[in-house]
Design goal:
alpha/beta; Leucine-rich repeat, LRR (right-handed beta-alpha superhelix); 7-stranded parallel sheet; 3 helices; 7 strands
């Protein structure tokens, strides 16, 4: 427990004294190899046609931002759940047919982008992400919202555009999640879910 508290304090301290969020420098994996691993806070592996995440990622214990978008990933390895400093994860435009539950171990995650993936349900384990503020599910064919969203009081924004829902379904969730800004496309004139 003491080691976990020290790690969380270190992550927070690094954040406070590192670059501002709007000036984040993303390294490629090749660039990251040339720098001390404790000094790498953001890695971009977008558009690399990855089917697996390189194991070296687990060496960057202070990693706060990880962009894995536009690849061919269909699952996350167990070590991703150990990236305890991660606050921003982009998994958009991959091949996840089910919501990757390793995400649920990322207790400090604040921003999650999983749009344009073919999964239809979000695991209720997402409730573990009590610091999550933003989730982008645009054009992900979700059949329903997870009930876990009802208890996620830090969640401020959900992007649900690109998914067709009827007006009463949209209103139900806007009413139930009144503290969250939910972006929907115009409601369809279709059967309600």
């Amino acid at each position: 427990m003491k080691k976990l508290l020290v790690l969380l304090f270190l992550c927070h301290s690094i954040f406070l004294f590192s670059q501002k969020e709007d000036t984040i420098h993303y390294y490629t994996l090749e660039e990251a190899h040339t720098i001390h691993s404790d000094s790498v806070f953001a890695i971009n592996l977008s558009k690399m046609k990855l089917t697996v995440i390189p194991k070296e990622i687990q060496n960057y214990k202070n990693l706060r931002h990880l962009n894995l978008s536009k690849n061919k990933l269909s699952e996350l390895p167990e070590f991703v759940g150990n990236l305890k400093c991660l606050i921003d994860l982009n998994l958009s435009k991959n091949n996840f047919t089910s919501f990757p539950t390793e995400i649920c171990k990322l207790n400090n995650l604040q921003r999650l982008i999983v749009n344009q993936n073919p999964f239809t349900h979000i695991s209720e384990c997402i409730v573990n992400l009590d610091k999550l503020k933003y989730i982008d599910l645009w054009d992900t064919p979700l059949e329903t919202f997870p009930n876990a969203f009802l208890t996620m009081k830090n969640l401020k924004y959900i992007d649900m555009r690109g998914i067709v829902y009827g007006p009463s379904y949209q209103q139900k969730w806007i009413r139930h999640l009144h503290w969250i800004r939910i972006e929907f496309d115009a409601p369809c004139d279709c059967m309600e879910k």
